[in-house]
């Protein structure tokens, strides 16, 4: 008889240690605070007083799933853990769920109705639920033309640098998709970022601004973009992100070239660019555009955020187009309030 | 009847079935995942469709992950999911039961 699924409270030191020792015995080794601090809930199954299975959720992502199949039919505990986590997420109204796992466990999740989005030597990303990547792709209209460019940007906020990158793509390609990162983890909200990108590109008629959904640099597919993470972690996640772009987004919407800005400032983005160059060709070409400079320094959205924090907008117009400048001036107090409340401005 | 929100019922454990209902626009669309789909897929779809039709649900996306459930289990899980999706959990649909 299988045991009951119970809550594990990882903020209790004894529980945390038992949980960590159990997962380590199964080969899971990353217990950095950036990973463990974002866990919302953890459940486990005990056989007597021995932990034999566990799983956690963070937002809409399943994490730290580990099962010992000793004395038990293969899959029983695993199915119980995944059922419990999906039911708890459903209670919170979350039905679209992702899991990062080792490639050898991809099949086990597929048996429970998950579909694989991408796989690499180090990991696999799967999803399940009421929407799929196909549902997302169906919402994006097909742009006409032979050469179609794709750009992914967080645009926190939209600068003259972003504008320059899109202009270059719009000159060289027949049409351009601009995918705006859809995760609300930046100073400017997703709605604000999409609004400023759309306003700042309104005069370019071969450019379409769309949401990056859950599939491009989202909190689900690429958490390291939003959290400080070790290089290995970033490479692992960006490889999957790049493969999703190539095998789904670019394939489905016939994107031939991905444009990126050269990246002298952000380590995470620099790694991302090099992974894109390794993963996307030959099906999708990667064009790195030299970053635009102003006042002898590259234009960076981070500088704009620092200006907001420092309450000094003297040089704002050099860095951002009029549409963004106007928005910042009108909402300055509100943006500064967010920074005071603890919104980080030094990340992405 | 219109699906008001996505709803989930059932488990992924042996002899059970997990049913997820969400808004659809193109009739009753069933995405069935089952080891016995070859032999019993049509029967499973029929049981689900019958329950949904009894609830007057015409447009819905169904994701069903079957782990060898009997018809009575499939029916019970579909009813539970339908009542949650229609937000009528407190008004048992006697004519369907």
Automatic annotation (TrEMBL), chain A:
It is an enzyme of class 6 (ligase). Its EC number is 6.2.1.22. Pfam families: Citrate_ly_lig. Keywords: ATP-binding, Ligase, Lyase, Nucleotide-binding. GO terms for molecular function: [citrate (pro-3S)-lyase] ligase activity; ATP binding; lyase activity. Residues 148-328 form the Citrate lyase ligase C-terminal domain. It catalyses: holo-[citrate lyase ACP] + acetate + ATP = acetyl-[citrate lyase ACP] + AMP + diphosphate. It comes from the Bacteria. Gene3D superfamilies: HUPs. PANTHER family: [CITRATE [PRO-3S]-LYASE] LIGASE. Acetylation of prosthetic group (2-(5''-phosphoribosyl)-3'-dephosphocoenzyme-A) of the gamma subunit of citrate lyase. This is [Citrate [pro-3S]-lyase] ligase. It comes from Levilactobacillus bambusae. The gene is citC.
TrEMBL record, chain B:
GO terms for cellular component: cytoplasm. GO terms for molecular function: lyase activity. Pfam families: ACP. The keyword Phosphoprotein applies. It is found in: Cytoplasm. The modification O-(phosphoribosyl dephospho-coenzyme A)serine is found at residue 14. Keywords: Cytoplasm, Lyase, Phosphoprotein. Belongs to the CitD family. Covalent carrier of the coenzyme of citrate lyase. Oligomer with a subunit composition of (alpha,beta,gamma)6. This is Citrate lyase acyl carrier protein. It comes from Levilactobacillus bambusae. The lineage of its organism: Bacteria, Bacillati, Bacillota, Bacilli, Lactobacillales. The gene is citD.
């Amino acid at each position: 008889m299988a045991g009951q699924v119970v809550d594990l409270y990882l903020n209790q030191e004894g529980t945390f240690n038992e949980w960590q020792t159990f997962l380590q015995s199964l080969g899971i080794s990353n217990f950095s605070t950036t990973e463990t601090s974002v866990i919302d809930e953890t459940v486990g199954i005990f056989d007597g007083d021995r932990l034999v299975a566990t799983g956690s959720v963070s937002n809409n992502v399943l994490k730290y799933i580990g099962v010992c199949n000793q004395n038990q039919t293969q899959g029983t505990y695993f199915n119980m853990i995944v059922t419990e986590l999906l039911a708890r997420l459903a209670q919170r109204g979350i039905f679209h769920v992702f899991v990062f796992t080792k490639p050898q466990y991809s099949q086990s999740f597929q048996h429970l109705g998950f579909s694989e989005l991408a796989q690499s030597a180090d990991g696999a990303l799967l999803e399940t639920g009421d929407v799929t990547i196909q549902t997302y792709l169906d919402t994006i209209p097909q742009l006409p033309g032979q050469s179609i460019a794709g750009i992914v940007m967080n645009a926190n906020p939209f600068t003259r640098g972003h504008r320059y990158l899109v202009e270059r793509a719009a000159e060289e390609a027949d049409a351009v998709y601009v995918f705006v990162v859809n995760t609300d983890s930046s100073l400017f909200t997703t709605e604000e970022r999409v609004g400023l990108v759309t306003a700042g590109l309104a005069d370019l008629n071969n450019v379409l601004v769309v949401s990056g959904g859950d599939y491009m640099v989202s909190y689900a597919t690429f958490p390291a973009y939003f959290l400080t993470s070790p290089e290995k972690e970033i490479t692992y996640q960006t490889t999957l992100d790049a493969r999703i772009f190539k095998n789904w987004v670019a394939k489905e919407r016939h994107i031939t070239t991905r444009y990126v800005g050269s990246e002298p400032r952000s380590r995470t983005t620099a790694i991302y660019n090099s992974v894109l160059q390794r993963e996307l060709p030959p099906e999708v070409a990667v064009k790195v555009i030299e970053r635009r400079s102003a006042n002898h320094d590259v234009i960076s959205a981070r500088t704009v955020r620092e200006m907001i924090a420092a309450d000094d907008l003297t040089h704002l117009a050099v860095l951002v187009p009029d549409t963004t400048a106007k928005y910042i001036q009108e909402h300055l107090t509100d943006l500064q309030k967010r920074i005071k409340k603890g919104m980080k401005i030094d990340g992405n | 009847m219109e699906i008001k929100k996505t709803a989930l019922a059932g488990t992924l454990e042996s002899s059970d079935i997990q049913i997820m209902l969400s808004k659809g626009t193109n009739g009753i669309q069933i995405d069935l995942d089952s080891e016995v789909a070859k032999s019993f897929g049509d029967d499973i779809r029929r049981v689900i469709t019958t329950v949904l039709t009894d609830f007057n649900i015409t447009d819905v996306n169904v994701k069903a992950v079957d782990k060898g459930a009997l018809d009575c289990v499939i029916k019970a899980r579909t009813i539970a999911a339908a009542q949650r999706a229609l937000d009528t959990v407190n008004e048992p649909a006697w004519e369907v039961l």
